[in-house]
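Dear Dr. H.,

I hope your travels went smoothly. While you were away I took the liberty of generating a structure for the chain from your last submission, since the lab meeting agenda had it listed for discussion. I wanted you to have the full record in hand beforehand rather than looking at slides cold. The sequence, exactly as received, is reproduced here:
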Amino acid sequence: MYESQVADGTIQDYAVPVVPRDADPMVNLAVYVRSRSSSETLEDLADVYVKTLQDYKYPLIARDNVGLTAGPSVRLTATRPAGSLGTTADSRLLVYVLASPSRAYYVILISRSDTSTAYFNSFQCIAQSMVITK
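The corresponding predicted structure, in token form, is as follows:
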């Protein structure tokens, strides 16, 4: 799904640091970076990702404005149903949308839905550790 967006230019950079693997094989981190026009607000950037979630029929659970070290962010919480992308259990997605003057950043943290509470603080620490360099 996301890889196709990289291929068609919707998302221009792609990184998945997944080593070492967690005991829960669904735990994952992906960071997508794309160009941002000066007219796009942070809310617009979040709306784009909400549309992506809707297109894939991943229910949005929450949308929150959060302050991170890197600056203002919108945090989206969604569920990826079992069977999507070959998964055998529901996944919880925490998506942090951030922006610099010329780029949009989408930080996606994933775990099983039934273990998402156990990972929330760790995922929040990862999001807080993000630094955007100009």
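Two observations you may find useful: The radius of gyration is 14 Å. The chain has three helices and six strands.

With kind regards,
E. W.
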